[in-house]
Amino acid sequence: MKQVHVNTNDHSYTVYLDNGLRFETGKWLQKCLEQPVSSILVITDSTVGPLYLKDVLSGLSGFEQVHTVTIPSGEQSKSFAEYERLITEALTCGLDRKSVIIALGGGVVGDIAGFVAASYMRGIRFVQMPTTLLAHDSSVGGKVAINHALGKNMVGAFHQPEVVLYDTAMLGSLSTQEWRSGFAEVLKHGLILNRPFYEWLQTSIKSFDSIDNDLMAELLSQSIAIKAKVVSEDEQEHGVRALLNLGHTLGHAIESVSGYGRITHGEAVVIGIVFAMRLSEQLYDTHLDIPSFIAWVKSFGYETEIPNELSRQELLLAMKKDKKTEAGMIRMILLKEIGVACVEKVETDIIFSLLKEN
């Protein structure tokens, strides 16, 4: 078993990574939760539930009140309507301040379940049980949110989980597209803060099929450790945590303009990373070997160019709605070199010019 500790101003918690953790959920709750648990609500989705909910419930047999609710799988579920339904479900089940919400699923489930936990009765405890590679990133750090028609993750909170239980065996059911979506966040961590990790990825990961259990455990623990270090230094994104948004300003805009769910988060982020690398070379005296990066990610099936059908004007407008925008300037996460990222305020005409070129 691998463990990564996360320290925040709010509290500290641990990410546990191992095969078969889902069968022992109750044991880990008893070990990691300081206060008694009055009831549990497991929130999952229509894809994960049929695969793993029964296993998780078997591990919770020692608890008297265990409720479940399933949301439709996909980004569309991060909506006000689904949020209201989950709050109603929590009220109907009689959840109180000593209850615990378990998020069993990928990033969407973790985001909306975490936001329900953050806002229900002004905040109750929750546990992250990620089932995707993408969720290795989103399950750590306490960012929870739902989407608005005008922007992704615009309504949310910071609410740290009590513990993260990552049963890596559940990654075996992922599609290639889901692998791509999650791996984008892994390589991002290397690009912004850890060149040796990035170079190790390029050397070690040639295809998703070649990732065995040991390699997966090493990949995840290193990537989560980078995220945990950043969160420990800057829990609420006033400084260094903003660097984790490399590729996300354009990536979120692509998701929004194309319609949530039509392109996965990670696939959009890779396009955003390539854009940020080009902008970095344009603004700084640096060479990032973009052709090498593009060749590597294309070998996994990533697209690296903005889809032609997306209006560049609409993308710019979406980027200007980003939470990182200040006084009309778009705050971009750029690279001075591999492993060294920075925040740069960039004029919109410079960004629009580069958008039209790609």
From TrEMBL:
Its cofactor is NAD(+); Co(2+); Zn(2+). The keyword Transmembrane helix does not apply. Binds 1 divalent metal cation per subunit. Can use either Co(2+) or Zn(2+). It comes from the Bacteria. Keywords: Amino-acid biosynthesis, Aromatic amino acid biosynthesis, Cobalt, Cytoplasm, Lyase, Metal-binding, NAD, Nucleotide-binding, Zinc. GO terms for biological process: amino acid biosynthetic process; aromatic amino acid family biosynthetic process; chorismate biosynthetic process. Residues 182-325 form the 3-dehydroquinate synthase C-terminal domain. Zn(2+) binds at E185, H248, H265. It catalyses: 7-phospho-2-dehydro-3-deoxy-D-arabino-heptonate = 3-dehydroquinate + phosphate. The keyword RNA-binding does not apply. One of its GO terms (molecular function) is metal ion binding. It is found in: Cytoplasm. Residues 69-180 form the 3-dehydroquinate synthase N-terminal domain. One of its GO terms (cellular component) is cytoplasm. Its main location: cytoplasm. PANTHER family: 3-DEHYDROQUINATE SYNTHASE, 3-DEHYDROQUINATE SYNTHASE, CHLOROPLASTIC. Catalyzes the conversion of 3-deoxy-D-arabino-heptulosonate 7-phosphate (DAHP) to dehydroquinate (DHQ). This is 3-dehydroquinate synthase. It comes from Alkalicoccobacillus porphyridii. The gene is aroB.
